[in-house]
Amino acid sequence: LVSDTIVNAKVAAAKGIPATSCWLVKSEPEAFSWDDLWNAPKRTTCWDGVRNYLARNFMRDGMKRGHQVLFYHSNAEPTAIMGICEVVREAYPDPSQFDPASDYYDAGAKRDDPRWMMVDLKAVEAFAHPVTLQRLKATRGLDGLELTRKGSRLSVQPVSEAHWEIIRKLGAKG
DNA sequence: GCCAACGTTGGC
DNA sequence: GCCAACGTTGGC
Does the CB of A107 sit below 7 A from strand B? Predict the structure, then answer.
């Protein structure tokens, strides 16, 4: 007898999706900030507009209800992880791909075969001490974090549980 | 504003 | 299938 969890982990591994329950998403605060999310109805938003295949695969195949997601401000002053969200709805088609008026419109996406997916995220913990990029780079134990890898641009990325614990403590206690 | 790194496109 | 050109990301 093999549990669903193990089967799902094997399926995920076969697709190159890490078996983690911790993730990180980026947002430019000018477009959508942590405060925007915190003040949104139910502190929840759909994470639309992702147009990178690897990032999409992480959302579609990796993110499950209850998974924890760090919220990072890019192109910001300062650049920092602002808090923690939770996945409250698993992947479903991103409607903006079908909307010609949207910046995210994709003429190649078909309604019966959507190309882009999104999840819903709910803010659950605002960091008392946002963890700056500078801090992330300077913290021992965070080596190998995708966010700080030179040239990294992924807007949705996995985070190891060891890294997640360190970042959570920094955010809560400074 | 600059520019390195990256992903995608399209000619061949 | 290769790879140059292009547009984008995102730190600085």
Answer: no
Amino acid at A160: S
Q: Judge if pTM exceeds 0.85.
A: yes
- What is the rounded distance in angstroms from the CA atom of residue A130 to the CA atom of residue A166? 13
The CA distance from A25 to A155, in Å, is 6
pLDDT digit string (tens) for A66-77? 999 999 999 999
Find all residues with CB under 8 Å of A20, minimum gap 6, and list them. Answer: A62, A158, A159, A160, A161
Give pLDDT < 50 ranges for chain A: 1-4
d(CA A140, CA A57): 30
Nearest residue (Cα to C1') for B5? A151
- Specify whether the CB–CB gap between A124 and A86 falls below 8 A: yes
The CA-atom distances, in angstroms, between A95 and each of A28, A47, A107, A135, A170 are: 21, 11, 12, 37, 36
Residue listed under structure tokens 């780079």: A137
pLDDT recorded at residue A19: 78
Whether any strand C atom is under 7 angstroms from the Cβ of A76: the reply reads yes
